[in-house]
């Protein structure tokens, strides 16, 4: 029931009313959003249908064009006997795949021995047989936009040809060894999609085989690179890679859809050789693959007559082009050709039966009954095909017996579709993986859809323009009254019949044509925005106009004809060749052209008069142009209608105004042409074709207009002024929106900075607490030694363990005995990488693949890897000297903190290490993240495989004491329970052997933390770094002395931070190291003859930051460090001149989440951490508040609250800004300080009151969870995850001495037994924390006077 409560003269809604309003609002918003997304999906589907129909129509036209070539070939052959055009007919015969090539001729024509590799060539230099590192270099080079040298292209194709010739028509791989098989669909020259598949699924090998199911060339920008990569993969892993032929691996199709054009553009001088060899290699590709005798993988599909035995026995190499039957001794085996066409061109449909595929012009449509019969006859379970794009990248049909896989994402336009690939296990079960290599994921869905729709409409308008003559003729037949109008039904019927596109024309009509007031279609408006326009200035009666328009039909056909006439693939044709073609073309089209007409046309096309015609000149006379509403209006008289728009206005040349060049989409925003912008145009426009702006010009030029014309001009002027007024309103609206957006972004940035300060302050406070805890350990160690020396025997064992855990030196032989791996067996069930030493690059890839899929390395291999790394590191100096003399570059990676996704992303973007691609990893690669073990194992493996190309510096977290607190030891115990103690000990020893710094080219110092005014590189180079198992405590020498100066050098190098103020002072924020200013940096660089310092150690919002006049660079490589969306990661690349280039990245999994929502998540995480710190300090805070509140009112002023929080929490935070999130105000404006603890507190769970003897002491020890966890890890001697009751009692006695508290033995024993909740004689960490943990609760749960 709705209720309101009186509050003076106002009525305030009750909470129940507010809840009802919120629920209704939420329902309305959800309903609106569902409708909005449904509308977007409907629009996307409509655009999708347009694209797909145009694509299929284009392929159908290609089949028809092939018949056109056959006619030309027939007539050319006749003329050849007369000596007229034999050369053109011969070239045409070669181009359409009718001519067979002799083996010797092909090898002679495609030689590469005479092609030299220039010294300036910077790409990969291949040697055969190929190896995996060479493939990796090709991937890196192609991903940076490079191309392979023509010599290596030809050599690679020749090697591929030899391998493919040995393959059967139907390849039959097995998953008996690999246990899996990955099938990749159409790629269509999209290199980003191929690289993304290889990154997500791994490179091929014996355990990771691939089938690439055709159509990897054409349409995309990198067809050459994709093809070369696939062929290289097949050469390196011949048993693990199979490449099927698709309908686009066809010499005729390649000339129309971009592959030949791409080769001409990239390899001008050698393009003819490369095109010929690619065509021959494509003809040798297998036609299908059968996996485990269960799954047929073929590009197109099947038919009711498809016979796999016939497919397997035919000579596939005869079919250079599958769109034309092969001649054998002058005869055609049509049955064989039909089988090939159906395998490459067919599509599944839900209707039963098998019928001709009219949409594509080749192949057939096969129904579920055909699929069922085919599978039964051939004892198969499934068909995997490609050939068709799909919004989601895949689609099941025919009762899940047919799977379509399409791997080219954003195929039609950005945001149009996802890509996908499928993985089969050895039981035949598929698992589909989707992908999207989009570069605009951050764009809203509506904007991406608008881009998709615009591109679809541009393609449709181009098709309309190409069929304009036929459409106008069809409309004229329906327009008996010559009204220039037809009904909507008539318009749709004419568009359907003439364009041969099955589209929802009624739905598309508003985007294409206009209606009259009586709802009839003005059919000439169909051609307003696009038209085939003749640019030469001749009238439509010229002899070449109608013939060229019929030849044009679509741009692809004209381009294909041009490529065929271009015999040497030089990109241009001679005038003689053009004349020869026109003679054959005139004979085919039954048009009588005189010699003078042909010569005139040839000269007209040669615009620059250089004696040859390039493709731009060939298209210049007939191209698609955009125009305004008033352009290209034809006369309604059918006798005078023409394809030339200028015929209706012979009085003046065509002039296009700036307003006419603006598309309708642009005019609807902020732009409208003003009279001034058109003032330079001629006033002699035909009156019927003038826009409103032109009418105004005529009015000013001729004052003797009639009354009706003046009234019309006035109305046009009023419309123009109104349009200008609307434009001003739109402009003002845009300015307001921009201002609002800037303020919104500024508020988001302010909130992000505030959350950032909270996170960073807590992090530094935690590290400072770690140093204080270390002093606490030292007190315990001292008291334990006193108890041991006094003969009490109470704490000696614990003190000894504490001393070992705190960095005590290990004996070499003792360490090797404790950490041996020989007794550890590798179970048969282990499915991860099996390592053999010395390691190789293939082992690295196996590790990356396994870790990327969530696997872990076996304990035996991990221990063996650490022992090998230890030996390698022992030979390294304290300061490693790296050089770029060979590599010409050096990459520095900052903190990774157990974030494996970031490391893999860096390797994907920058490549694996090698001699030409060296790395420096600048410490802090463990702790905090969930995959510290895997990252450490990978970095150490890199160093073993490429010892001169990888250096791993030590950071402040490569420290045993830090590992106890920040998660690394906990991770080891979780992943390796039985061998955790061995692994922890060996990791600690290996960390102590890591170099302390790296100097690149004797110019750039790379160290984890920073410097100080007393840092001496010579002393750092001489010290024994292995003594410092923990840098937090100075090691004792043999005489019992401590070298504090040496220890401070190590501590400053690992813990220091740069600051803007001059000088050098202790780093009180972290509790270790120092703050060094720009003067300290300048002095240090000058003294050591360096130019720059690269450090890590600090998280930065952008992943990097310059300080001290760009002399200090901070690099932090762990993205989303504090929380999802909190920061980017970065790495830096130096060239051999010392110039740097920073690369940013983010391994975020929530790229599509709005920025505001991501920021809210960051803020919530920061506040949770802050409330946990407040809860851990509750006792001190309450005491401080009570001192300021002598009257026990429960309130203090806001200023007093901020002062107490600053003093007790030791956090330099904007407490006034944070106050609304942490505490509540009383009605008088004072602060209710106990509300600070409403949402989080340290709560005792055992039910005892705070007066019991262990409560205050435990809270003092607890302080926060990390410190208590560190103490627990140290007491757990064997890293088993639990401590005995005796050890706990022993610790408490030493702790009582350190805290000067008197506890009887019975009290200590009672507390120990109370913590052993399951009474098993041991205390695990959960039991240790159970009595004192942080919980969330409501404000009513805490008494206000507590």
From TrEMBL:
Lineage: Eukaryota, Metazoa, Spiralia, Lophotrochozoa, Platyhelminthes
Molecular function in Gene Ontology: calcium ion binding; protein serine/threonine phosphatase activity
Comp. bias regions, Polar residues: 629-682
Record-linked InterPro entries: Calcineurin-like_PHP (IPR004843), EF-hand-dom_pair (IPR011992), EF_Hand_1_Ca_BS (IPR018247), EF_hand_dom (IPR002048), IQ_motif_EF-hand-BS (IPR000048), Metallo-depent_PP-like (IPR029052), PPP_dom (IPR013235), PPP_phosphatase (IPR051134)
Protein name: Serine/threonine-protein phosphatase
Enzyme class, spelled out: hydrolase
Catalytic activity: O-phospho-L-threonyl-[protein] + H2O = L-threonyl-[protein] + phosphate
Pfam family, one: EF-hand_7
Species assigned in the record: Macrostomum lignano
Region (Disordered): 629-720, 791-811
Domain EF-hand: 553-588, 593-628, 1176-1211, 1263-1298, 1303-1338
EC number(s) reported in the record: 3.1.3.16
Basic and acidic residues bias locations: 707-720
Protein family per UniProt: Belongs to the PPP phosphatase family.
Named cofactor requirement(s): Mn(2+)
Keyword annotations of the record: Calcium, Hydrolase, Manganese, Metal-binding, Repeat
């Amino acid at each position: 029931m709705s209720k309101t409560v009186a509050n003076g003269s106002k009525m305030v809604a009750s909470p129940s009313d507010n809840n009802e309003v919120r629920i209704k609002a939420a329902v309305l918003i959800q309903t609106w959003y569902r409708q909005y997304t449904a509308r977007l999906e409907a629009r996307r589907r409509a655009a999708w249908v347009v694209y797909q129909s145009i694509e299929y129509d284009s392929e159908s036209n290609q089949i028809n064009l092939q018949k056109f070539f056959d006619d030309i070939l027939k007539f050319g052959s006749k003329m050849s006997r007369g000596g007229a055009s034999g050369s053109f007919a011969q070239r045409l015969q070669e181009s359409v795949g009718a001519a067979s090539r002799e083996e010797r001729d092909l090898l002679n024509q495609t030689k590469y021995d005479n092609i030299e590799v220039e010294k300036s060539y910077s790409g990969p230099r291949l040697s055969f047989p190929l190896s995996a590192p060479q493939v990796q270099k090709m991937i890196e080079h192609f991903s940076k936009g490079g191309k392979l040298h023509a010599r290596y292209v030809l050599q690679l194709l020749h090697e591929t040809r030899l391998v493919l010739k040995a393959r059967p028509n139907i390849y039959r791989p097995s998953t008996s060894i690999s246990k899996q098989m990955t099938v990749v669909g159409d790629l269509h020259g999209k290199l980003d999609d191929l690289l993304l598949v290889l990154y997500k699924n791994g490179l091929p090998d014996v355990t990771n085989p691939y089938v690439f199911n055709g159509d990897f060339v054409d349409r995309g920008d990198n067809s050459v690179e994709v093809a070369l990569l696939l062929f290289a993969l097949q050469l390196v892993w011949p048993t693990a890679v199979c490449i099927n032929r698709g309908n686009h691996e066809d010499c005729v199709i390649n000339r129309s859809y971009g592959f030949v054009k791409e080769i001409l553009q990239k390899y001008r001088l050698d393009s003819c050789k490369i095109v010929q060899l690619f065509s021959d290699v494509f003809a040798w590709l297998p036609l299908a693959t059968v996996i485990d005798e269960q799954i047929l993988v073929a590009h197109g599909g099947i038919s009711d007559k498809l016979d796999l035995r016939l497919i397997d026995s035919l000579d596939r190499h005869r079919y250079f082009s599958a769109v034309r039957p092969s001649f054998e001794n002058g005869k055609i085996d049509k049955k064989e050709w039909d089988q090939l066409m159906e395998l490459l061109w067919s599509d599944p449909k839900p209707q039963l039966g098998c019928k001709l595929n009219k949409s594509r012009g080749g192949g057939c449509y096969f129904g579920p009954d055909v699929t069922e019969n085919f599978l039964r006859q051939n004892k198969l379970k499934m068909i995997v095909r490609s050939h068709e794009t799909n919004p989601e990248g895949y689609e099941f049909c025919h009762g899940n017996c047919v799977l379509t896989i399409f791997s080219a994402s954003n195929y039609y336009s950005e945001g149009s579709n996802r890509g996908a690939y499928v993985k089969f296990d050895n039981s035949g079960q598929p698992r589909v993986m989707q992908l999207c290599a989009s570069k605009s994921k951050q764009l809203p869905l509506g904007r991406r859809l608008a881009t998709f729709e615009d591109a679809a409409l541009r393609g449709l308008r181009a098709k309309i323009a190409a069929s304009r003559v036929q459409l106008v003729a069809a409309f004229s037949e329906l327009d008996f009254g010559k009204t220039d109008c037809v009904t909507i039904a008539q318009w749709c019927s004419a568009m359907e019949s003439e364009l041969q596109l099955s589209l929802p024309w009624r739905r598309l009509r508003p985007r294409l044509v206009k209606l009259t007031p009586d709802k009839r279609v003005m059919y000439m408006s169909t051609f307003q925005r696009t038209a085939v326009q003749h640019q030469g200035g001749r009238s439509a009666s010229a002899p070449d106009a109608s013939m060229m328009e019929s030849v044009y039909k679509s741009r692809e056909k004209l381009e294909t004809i041009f490529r065929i006439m271009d015999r040497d693939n030089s990109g241009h044709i001679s005038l003689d060749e053009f004349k020869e073609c026109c003679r054959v073309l005139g004979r085919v089209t039954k048009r009588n052209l005189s010699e003078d007409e042909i010569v005139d046309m040839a000269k007209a096309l040669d615009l620059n008069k250089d004696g040859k015609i390039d493709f731009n000149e060939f298209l210049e006379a007939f191209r698609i142009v955009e125009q305004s509403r008033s352009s290209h209006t034809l006369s309604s008289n059918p006798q005078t209608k023409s394809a030339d728009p200028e015929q209706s206005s012979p009085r003046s040349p065509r002039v296009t105004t700036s307003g006419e060049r603006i598309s309708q989409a642009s005019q609807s925003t902020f732009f409208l042409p003003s009279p001034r912008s058109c003032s330079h145009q001629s006033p002699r426009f035909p009156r019927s074709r003038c826009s409103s702006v032109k009418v105004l010009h005529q009015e000013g030029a001729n004052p003797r207009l009639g009354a009706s014309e003046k009234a019309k001009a006035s109305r046009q002027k009023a419309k123009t002024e109104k349009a200008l007024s609307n434009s001003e309103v739109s402009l003002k609206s845009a300015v307001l929106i921009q201002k609002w957006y800037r303020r919104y972004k500024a508020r988001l940035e302010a909130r992000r900075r505030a959350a950032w300060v909270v996170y960073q302050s807590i992090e530094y406070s935690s590290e400072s607490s770690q140093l204080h805890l270390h002093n606490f350990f030292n007190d315990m160690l001292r008291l334990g030694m006193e108890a041991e020396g006094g003969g009490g025997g109470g704490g000696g064992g614990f003190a000894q363990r504490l001393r070992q855990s705190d960095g005590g030196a290990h004996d070499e032989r003792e360490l090797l005995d404790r950490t041996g791996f020989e007794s550890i067996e590798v179970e048969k069930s282990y499915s991860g990488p099996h390592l053999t030493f010395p390691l190789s690059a293939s082992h690295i890839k196996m590790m990356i693949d396994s870790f990327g899929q969530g696997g872990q390395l076996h304990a035996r291999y991990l221990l063996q890897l650490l022992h090998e790394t230890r030996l390698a590191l022992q030979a390294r100096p304290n300061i490693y000297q790296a050089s770029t003399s060979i590599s010409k570059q050096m990459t520095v990676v900052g903190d990774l903190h157990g974030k494996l996704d970031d490391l893999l992303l860096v390797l994907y973007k920058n490549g694996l290490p090698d001699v030409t691609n060296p790395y420096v990893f600048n410490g802090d690669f463990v702790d905090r993240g969930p995959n510290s073990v895997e990252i450490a194992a990978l970095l150490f493996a890199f160093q073993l495989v490429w010892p001169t190309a990888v250096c791993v510096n030590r950071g402040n977290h490569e420290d045993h004491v830090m590992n106890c607190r920040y998660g690394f030891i906990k991770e080891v115990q979780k992943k390796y329970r039985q061998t955790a103690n061995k692994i922890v000990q060996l990791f600690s020893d290996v960390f102590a052997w890591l170099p302390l710094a790296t100097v690149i080219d004797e110019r750039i110092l790379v160290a984890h933390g920073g410097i100080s005014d007393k840092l001496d590189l010579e002393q750092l180079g001489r010290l024994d770094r292995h003594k410092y198992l923990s840098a937090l405590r100075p090691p004792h020498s043999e005489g019992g002395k401590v070298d504090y100066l040496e220890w401070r050098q190590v501590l400053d190098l690992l813990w220091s931070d740069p600051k803007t103020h001059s000088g050098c002072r202790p780093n009180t924020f972290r509790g270790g190291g120092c703050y060094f200013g720009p003067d300290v940096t300048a002095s240090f660089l000058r003294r050591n003859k360096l130019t720059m310092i690269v450090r890590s150690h600090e998280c930065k919002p952008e992943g990097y930051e310059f300080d001290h006049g760009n002399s200090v660079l901070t690099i932090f490589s762990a993205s989303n460090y504090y929380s999802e969306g909190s920061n980017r990661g970065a790495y830096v690349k130096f060239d051999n001149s010392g110039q740097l280039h920073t690369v940013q990245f983010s391994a975020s999994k929530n790229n599509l989440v709005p920025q505001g929502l991501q920021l809210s998540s960051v803020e919530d995480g920061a506040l949770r951490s802050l409330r946990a710190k407040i809860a851990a300090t509750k006792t001190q805070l309450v005491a401080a508040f009570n001192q300021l509140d002598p009257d026990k009112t429960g309130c203090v002023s806001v200023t007093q609250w901020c002062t107490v929080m600053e003093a007790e929490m030791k956090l330099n935070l904007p407490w006034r800004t944070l106050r609304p999130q942490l505490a509540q105000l009383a009605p008088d404006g004072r602060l209710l300080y106990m509300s600070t603890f409403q949402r989080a507190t340290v709560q005792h769970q055992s039910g005892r009151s705070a007066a019991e003897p262990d409560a205050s002491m435990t809270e003092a020890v607890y302080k926060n969870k990390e410190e208590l966890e560190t103490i627990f890890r140290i007491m757990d001697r064997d890293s088993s995850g639990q401590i005995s009751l005796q050890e706990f009692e022993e610790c408490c006695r030493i702790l009582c001495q350190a805290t000067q508290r008197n506890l009887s033995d019975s009290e200590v024993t009672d507390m120990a037994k109370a913590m052993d909740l399951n009474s098993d004689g041991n205390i695990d960490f959960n039991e240790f924390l159970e009595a004192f943990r942080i919980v969330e609760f409501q404000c009513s749960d805490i008494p206000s006077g507590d």
